[in-house]
Amino acid sequence: MGGVFTFFMFIGTLKANRGLQFVFLSLTALFALLALRDFFGSHAIGVLAGYVGIVCGASAIYLAMAEVLAEMYGRKVLPY
To answer: What is the CA radius of gyration of the chain?
Structure first.
């Protein structure tokens, strides 16, 4: 259910910035990979999900930092 919710949140970001779209798209992919790992019992899919999770988390941290800096300085400091 988390993956379904995240997918619909991704659809909602299609009019938002690319950074937010990437965060929700990668989170949707992460949930899908975790479900596939559990369904097939595949260690390799679990490892891939781990890497996707790291990318998703790093992009979420970057986006948060970019948005906070943009709010503080009144302009885009980092692209997002």
So the answer is: 15
Q: Which residues contact 76 (CB under 8 A, 6 or more apart)?
A: 66, 70
Whole-Å CA distances, 79 to 7, 22, 26, 39, 44: 24, 13, 18, 38, 33
Q: Tell me the pLDDT tens digit for each residue of 18-71.
A: 999 999 999 999 999 999 999 999 999 999 999 999 999 999 999 999 999 999
Q: Can you tell me the distance from the alpha carbon of 20 to that of 14, in angstroms, rounded to the nearest whole number?
A: 9
Confidence (pTM): 0.91
What's the token pair of residue 37?
A: 């790992």
End-to-end CA separation in angstroms for the chain: 28
Q: For residues 70 and 76, is the Cβ–Cβ distance under 8 A? A: yes
